[in-house]
Design a protein that fits this description.
Strand content: 35-45%
Largest sheet: 6 strands, antiparallel
Number of strands: 8
Strand order of the largest sheet: 2-1-3-4-5-6
Structural class: alpha+beta
Distance between the termini: 27 Å
Helix content: 10-25%
């Protein structure tokens, strides 16, 4: 499935692949996205991002990123609400407020998840609609 004709999509990733470093694909297929998500799931560290750039340039970009460190993941979604860029992240209010010590940066445990199926669901929704409706992203 391809994304709306009103947007240009850029898939970007930082993973340990044959071209280590930050790489991009313009107008990826869903198969391209799942390939990179699978790599992140397996490698447990890195990031995968989709940017939706409006072709008319009248609206702001929407961006979704899943970041991983040692098998802990978080999603950051930059949405456009009332013409302003708003950042939302995964968040679980039921967990206590404490920090998870990770090699690159300490992360709030309430923002983390380990069930990578969640990442596939959110990315699929964003890829198809340029939006995210999950109550786990606030």
């Amino acid at each position: 499935m391809r994304i709306s004709e009103d947007y240009r999509i850029i898939l970007t990733w930082t993973l340990d692949d044959e071209h280590y470093g930050r790489r991009s694909i313009w107008n990826p297929t869903w198969e391209n996205v799942t390939e990179k998500l699978n790599m992140l799931r397996d490698q447990k560290t890195g990031d995968v991002t989709i940017e939706a750039n409006p072709k008319n340039h009248e609206n702001m970009d929407k961006i979704i990123t899943v970041e991983g460190q040692e098998g802990y993941f978080r999603i950051i979604f930059i949405d456009v609400i009332n013409g302003k860029s708003v950042e939302r992240q995964t968040f679980d209010r039921t967990l206590p407020a404490r920090m998870k010590e990770l090699p690159d940066e300490d992360w709030d445990e309430r923002r983390l998840f380990r069930d990578f199926d969640f990442a596939y669901q959110v990315f699929k929704e964003f890829f198809e609609t340029q939006s995210v409706s999950s109550p786990r992203i606030v």
